[in-house]
Design a protein that fits this description.
Helix content is 54%, strand content 9%. The protein has 269 residues and is α+β, with helices and mostly antiparallel strands. A hairpin with a 6-residue loop joins strand 1 and strand 2.
C-alpha cells in the first residue's frame, strides 16, 4: 500500500530540485533581477525559502528553540518603532550578504536536513509554526507550496521554463482546504454554500473536490488554480471557469499561505 506521507516527501524533494535547477543555471548578475514581489530580487526569493526551511528544520528538531526564535521575530515586527522592512532585514540578511553559490549551498543543506527530519515524524505529529500548529503532513505540504510559489516568482522574473507536474495536486488540495481560512484571515465568516472544484492535471487526470451538485463551481487547469490560490495570478488572467457568487468571492481573495491577509496581483489586461 502506498504511503501518502512518504510520497509527499519525495515530491517535496523533487520540487526543491526543480527550482534549484533553474536557479543554479543563472549568471551571477541575474540574481539581482527584480521579481513580481515588490522589492524582492531573485536572490531574495531563494533567501526567503532558505530562511524558512531553516526555521522549519528548527521546529522539527528543537521546538522550544523555534518558539523562542518565532517570538523574538514577532516582538520585533510588532514594535511600533520597527522599520517597514524589518521582516526583510530579519529573514533576508544572510541571502543579501552571500554569493549565489553560498546561498544555494546553504539552502541545499537546510532543505535536505528538513526532509530528513520530517521523515522521522509521524504524519499526524503537530509542529509549531507562525500560525496554529500543523500536522507534519500539512507542514510538508506547506513547504512544497512555498517552494513552488516563490519559484514561480523567480521563473516569471527570468523567463525560465519550469514545466508543471502532478505535484501540483498537493497545492490544489491545500488551496481547497484553506477556503475557510481565507475568510478567517479577513475577519469574515466563510459562506456555508459548498463549491465544486474540478481541475485538469498536467498529466490529463481530473482532480475533484466538493459535492457534484454544488451550484458554485471552479473548473479548469490545475496550474491556473494553483497560481490563483497562491496569489501569483489574477483569476481573469487564467483559464479557470468560475460560476456562482460564492465561488467568485472565494477566488477573488483565495490565500493558501499563512500570514497577514494579502491581495493578489491585479489583472494584466
Amino acid at each position: 500500500m502506498a504511503d501518502p506521507y512518504a510520497e509527499l516527501l519525495v515530491d517535496l524533494t523533487a520540487e526543491h530540485a526543480a527550482l534549484d535547477a533553474v536557479a543554479a543555471d543563472l549568471e551571477a548578475d541575474r540574481w539581482d533581477t527584480p521579481t513580481p514581489s515588490p522589492g524582492w530580487s531573485v536572490r531574495d526569493q531563494i533567501g526567503h525559502l532558505h530562511h524558512f526551511d531553516g526555521t522549519a528544520l528548527l521546529s522539527a528538531t528543537d521546538p522550544a528553540a523555534f518558539v523562542a526564535e518565532r517570538d523574538t521575530m514577532m516582538a520585533t515586527l510588532l514594535d511600533p518603532a520597527a522599520a517597514p522592512d524589518a521582516l526583510d532585514r530579519h529573514t533576508l540578511a544572510f541571502a543579501r550578504g552571500a554569493t549565489p553559490e553560498e546561498l544555494l549551498a546553504a539552502w541545499r543543506q537546510d532543505r535536505g536536513a528538513l526532509v530528513e527530519a520530517l521523515a522521522t515524524l509521524d504524519p499526524k505529529h503537530r509542529l509549531e509554526w507562525y500560525g496554529p500548529p500543523m500536522s507534519a503532513m500539512s507542514f510538508a505540504t506547506a513547504r512544497l507550496m512555498e517552494t513552488w510559489a516563490h519559484g514561480q516568482d523567480l521563473v516569471d522574473a527570468v523567463g525560465a521554463d519550469r514545466p508543471p507536474t502532478d505535484r501540483l495536486r498537493h497545492i490544489a488540495h491545500l488551496g481547497v482546504r484553506t477556503r475557510e481560512f481565507t475568510y478567517v484571515l479577513r475577519g469574515r465568516e466563510a459562506p456555508a454554500a459548498p463549491v465544486r472544484v474540478e481541475l485538469v492535471a498536467p498529466s490529463g487526470a481530473v482532480w475533484e473536490w466538493g459535492p457534484d451538485d454544488a451550484a458554485d463551481r471552479v473548473t479548469g487547469p490545475a496550474l491556473d488554480f494553483c497560481l490563483v490560490v497562491t496569489q501569483r495570478r489574477h483569476p481573469a488572467d487564467t483559464g479557470l471557469a468560475i460560476a456562482g457568487p460564492v465561488a467568485e468571492d472565494w477566488m477573488a481573495i483565495a490565500q493558501a499561505f499563512a500570514g497577514l491577509p494579502t491581495e493578489g496581483p491585479p489583472p494584466r489586461s
